[in-house]
Amino acid sequence: MRASLLAGTAAAALLAVLALAGPLALPDPDLPDYAAKLLPPSAAHPLGTDQLGRDVLARLASGARVTLGAALAVTALGAAIGVVAGGVAGYARGPVDAAISRVVDVLLAVPSTLVALAVVGALGPGLVHLVLAMSVAAWAPVARLTRSHVLTAATRPDVVAARMAGVGRGRVVLGHVLPGAFLRVLAVAALGLGETIIGLSGLSFLGLGAQPPTAEWGQMLAESRYDLASSPWLLAGPGVAILVAVSAAGLLSDWLGERL
């Protein structure tokens, strides 16, 4: 358990430094230099240059802000909607619970990528549209978990005592029920963060996310496929970054699960 925490924290810290400090210390990631196209890794360009002579490390750092920022936005938005929807369903019960539960069942039955593709198809490509599209499916597992916790917590002695003392429903839910669901939701969100990073990168690879010249890991992978045989370093940077990010999310989720 401690090893998972240390490894996950170290990987997350590395990505945070890359995303926050990298763009401040590295060259302009969008500035082309046609005289330095497809240069191999060197002291001047630790990860080489791409097809337009742009520094790959600089674009990797800039892409970390875009990819990780979008993934965190999807996770936070999905968790917020899921907690509210699950809490309302579990506490209101009756027709409200049935209606929300049916929507959750439908979203869980359909692959999240398919839902995202449908929403992006309706809204058009773009990073903001992609974040909204993936958030549509991201809240369903959180809502299911929150509803289950609320139903279980309704019969706890502290909740029953609070209701008998005349405490309002809103204060009971906010003060007694939802705090207990926080760690569980956090663990599910951390695990879902890795899946979200993969999903964002995959859809950006297809051209549905951030548009050029904005750097994004999935888009960088898409651009590298044309020169993969002669310039494999174009693939290594974003590929390893995605692997590290997904591993960090999985390790931290494992630690949170053990803490529960």
TrEMBL record:
Residues 64-253 form the ABC transmembrane type-1 domain. Keywords: Cell membrane, Membrane, Signal, Transmembrane, Transmembrane helix, Transport. It is a multi-pass membrane protein. PROSITE patterns: ABC_TM1. Pfam families: BPD_transp_1. It comes from the Bacteria. InterPro entries: BP-dependent_transpt_permease, MetI-like, MetI-like_sf. It is found in: Cell membrane. The chain crosses the membrane at residues 68-91, 103-121, 181-210, 230-252. Residues 1-21 form the signal peptide. Belongs to the binding-protein-dependent transport system permease family. This is ABC transmembrane type-1 domain-containing protein. It comes from Nonomuraea recticatena. The lineage of its organism: Bacteria, Bacillati, Actinomycetota, Actinomycetes, Streptosporangiales.
